[in-house]
Amino acid sequence: QVQLQESGPGLVKPSQTLSLTCTVSGGSISSDNYFWSWIRQPAGKGLEWIGRIYKNGDTRYSPSLGDRVTMSLDTSKNKLSLRLTSVTAADTAIYYCSRSGDRYYFDYWGQGTLVTVSS
Amino acid sequence: EIVMTQSPATMSVSPGERAILSCRASQRINSYLAWYQQRPGQTPRLLIYGASTRASGVPARFSGGGSGTEFTLTISSLQSEDFAVYYCQHYFNWPLTFGGGTRVEIK
After folding, report:
1. Among A7, A88, B37, B40, which residue carries the largest CB count within 10 Å?
2. Interface contact B91-A111, CB threshold 8 A
3. Chain B positions in Cβ-Cβ contact with residue A6 (cut-off 8 Å)
């Protein structure tokens, strides 16, 4: 059973960089044909896909976040990471990491971590 | 970007009744559509993919239909655990996008 667990600071100041990690257990992030995404959800609102990364480092990002987002992998630790620069209050949300196959629907999700952007 | 529009935003249904939720895509997405359930305080759970294929462990009372731009999720007989928010998501192209959700509440 694949499990994902997000971690990182719960509070980030405006204009700073949000950094989160997702630890994967019960499966390898280096497996063929599995892709790893970050998805966020502001309180009481809907879901927004942020981007995805494959085991070879290939990434796809949502254009809505422009060049503020970077995703990376640490295959030795079976972890993926998210960096979001120049954050504002609009980036306050629960951030989820999730797995998909090469048909990009999400079959495993982490529990999510709340990140608040505030001074 | 493909815009996914769900309707209604909220529906009130009595236990045991049927609920039909709608999802519309702003352009054709063939059958590249998934549905998720999110109970209060919980993580989204995959229900349906390929517009009509139930994910592992999903009860048969959930069924998905449609193709192209119009899709439905039908819950044939609502159980107490089905009162939740439901989201559709396309995976036809980039970026992946979700609908705004339909809240199914107890009448």
Report:
1. B37
2. no
3. none
Residue B44 has a CB neighbour count (10 Å cut-off) of 25
CA atoms of B100 and A91, how far apart (whole Å)? 18
Which of B105, B107, B94, B85 is CA-nearest to residue B35?
B85
Chunk chain B into consecutive blocks of 10 residues (it has 107) and report each block's average pLDDT, rounded to whole numbers.
97 96 98 97 97 97 97 96 97 97 95
Question: How many Cα atoms are found within 13 Å in the side-chain-facing hemisphere of B59?
Answer: 10
> How much is the pLDDT for A102?
85
HSE value, Cβ hemisphere, 13 Å, CA-based, for A118: 7
Q: Name residue, tokens 């600071």.
A: A9
SS3 track for B25-91? ECCCCCCCEEEEEECCCCCCEEEEECCCEECCCCCCCEEEEEECCEEEEEECCCCHHHCCEEEEEEC
Token pair for A94 = 């629960």
Provide, as residue numbers in chain B, all residues whose Cβ is less than 8 Å from the Cβ of A100. 91
Give me the residue label for tokens 């979700």. Answer: B98
Task: Go through chain B and tell me how many residues it has.
Answer: 107
Q: Among B36, B91, B101, whose Cβ lies nearest the Cβ of A103?
A: B91
Residue from the list B1, B87, B94 with its beta carbon closest to the beta carbon of A60: B94
